[in-house]
Here is the input.
Amino acid sequence: MKELMDYINNSLNSLPEDKYLYAFKKKLVAEITERANDITHTGISDDKVIYDIITGEHPNIEKEFREYKGEFEKKRQQKVAFRKTILGSAGYFLAVLIIFLVVSFMGQGWKKSWVFLINGLSLYVAYMSLNTVSLLSEKSSRYRPVSRTLLALSVFSFALPVFLICAFLLKAPHPWLVFIAAVIAMFTVDGIYIEKQKLRFAIFFHLAYIPPAMTMFYIFFATLNIIPWHPGWILIPLSFLIVIAVILYRLNIHKKHKYSDEETEADSEW
Here is the structure.
């Protein structure tokens, strides 16, 4: 064991002594001791053989230490971020509540001040949804459905305050159009996400979004009298023609490249 201890110390002697190095050495010694005992139980008793086996399993101890320290720092930063999130959330809710009460009492506007409270909660949900999506993006692909759901939730959480302000404070006409726009935004955001994540069969999601998105555009612009209701409805069957045209185009590309090395992943999905 002395040779192994010397090997550890010599491998790490260029690094400054700190709490990370001490913890790593303690952990590594325990692992090596256990490993040496396991090797001995297999019938190998030659110290040199044991030394060669263990040093072969740990050829770069300094690299192991840097990875250990990096992982330790990452966990520490996650804990700090979690504490900041808790404190920030508490401070945010307290600020929203105080402003709500001040506005309600000073302006005697209880009939409208609730809008501010709901908006504060809705924006918080949107922020937390986007923050969670950011965290999940660093994890495995199995979290992608959750991320896509949270992205949709964040879009509508942003849309709700706009709707409430337009409907109850500004008395704007057709405030429900905000949610029509939110549906279009949801399709757009999800399309960008699946493209950036290189999600398999992404093209089928894009195609599936064209008809409902075109329908939302039709309702939105027709309600605002930007296009007429008739024959503006032609946008809806036109969207299906676009889908069919894209499908035929992609099938034609796939047919040409079927036996070619130039076939792309997107082509193979057809």
Notes: The mean pLDDT is 87. Residues 61-107 form the longest helix (47 residues).
